[in-house]
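Throughout this chapter, every protein is written as a compact record of paired, labelled lines. An example of such a record is reproduced below:
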Amino acid sequence: MKSLLLGTIILAMALAPATAEAKGCIKGAIVGGIAGHMAGHGKVGVVAGCIIGHHEANKRDAEKADQKAPPTPRDNRI
């Protein structure tokens, strides 16, 4: 079982893109791992925390981009 998991991890790392964005993943994984450990599912908590943390970071980035967008010019013809 451990060799299958290790092989899967090595294969995933080999096929992963060179540049990966980990925004929110580390923080979410830590929080999710602690919460999952308390519930008896530490590894599941880490994965879920990483996914949720990454999603939240992307959502915040999108909100910041919306705020920075210049207003569209209005047509002032009467």
Observations:
- The first helix runs from residue 2 to 15.
